[in-house]
Specification:
Helix content: 25-40%
Oligomer: single chain
CATH architecture of the largest domain: Alpha-Beta Complex
Number of strands: 10
Radius of gyration: 18 Å
Length: 264
């Protein structure tokens, strides 16, 4: 098997990001900036396709990377990732261990995290994932078999995520699409590297908009089960964020549901 990292970034003036991220495999870098061009280069013996584009949105960036990739396994990344040495073998080794896996979610170390939105999922065992234990994995933890998602026509939403109209959730919707298509999802204890979580393009604190946006995501990911999902996450968030009651969070989720249903 062969691995490619699909990197989403913005406004890169040179190729120094490859050093910063400790890229040790082939990669497709999608650089959203003020120009449109494609360059191919050799970086320490690895093939790098560097795509510069003026269009915006993290979903569009990841989809562009998927369509320009040609490896067996794709690993998604943002430009704040710093990979550990040997990450490519760690990822491919996990797919060899779990031969039926279509998608695997790995661990990362969060550095300087300022968010308190329910905790970052840390894998302590290798196990199968379901709709109820996969929604807290961000895209930078995900590796997937490229041909499988192309076969099932699975892509990232253009409505959600950094640079899109609605702030976040494209990764949760992507994972739910994979589950709905019958793909086999697993988690694994291998740690990919460090992510600087001190800044965010979408997180502006816990406020009403945060819960409204989550309501839109849950309604999109769970078109039939969303009332149950609303209740569960309203209860969970009310325990963490004491200023918001269960019923108020639920009402904000419903407002998000109405927003996305009336989107036209």
């Amino acid at each position: 098997m062969r691995l490619q990292v699909v990197v989403s970034t913005m406004d890169q003036a040179d190729y120094s990001l490859l050093d910063k991220m400790n890229i040790q495999s082939d990669a497709v870098v999608v650089n959203q900036c003020d120009r449109n061009e494609v360059a191919e280069l050799d970086y320490k013996g690895h093939k790098i396709k560097w795509i510069s584009m003026t269009d915006r949105g993290v979903g569009l960036s990841r989809n562009t990377g998927i369509l320009h990739s040609d490896a067996d396994v794709i690993l998604f990344a943002d430009d704040d990732m710093q990979y550990v040495d040997g990450y490519a073998e760690g990822v491919l080794g996990a797919f060899r261990e779990q031969a039926d896996a279509d998608l695997i979610c790995f661990n990362i170390n969060l550095v300087n995290s300022t968010k308190n939105i329910g905790g970052h999922r840390n894998n302590t065992a290798c196990k199968k994932l379901s709709a109820f234990n996969s929604m807290r994995y961000g895209a930078t933890l995900i590796a997937v078999r490229r041909k499988v998602i192309l076969r099932e026509r699975i892509m990232f939403s253009l409505l959600f995520g950094g640079g899109a109209e609605f702030s976040s959730g494209e990764d949760s919707i992507f994972l739910k699409q994979c589950l709905d298509s019958g793909l086999k999802l697993y988690c694994h204890t291998f740690c990919l590297g460090d992510v600087d979580d001190s800044q965010s393009s979408w997180f502006k604190g816990i406020n009403e908009k945060f819960f409204i946006d989550r309501g839109m995501v849950y309604r999109t990911a769970f078109p039939k089960l969303y009332p149950l999902i609303f209740l569960y996450y309203a209860w969970r968030n009310s325990k963490i964020h004491k200023d918001y009651s269960l019923m108020y969070i639920y009402q904000l989720f419903v407002e998000g549901k109405k927003t996305i249903e009336n989107y036209r």
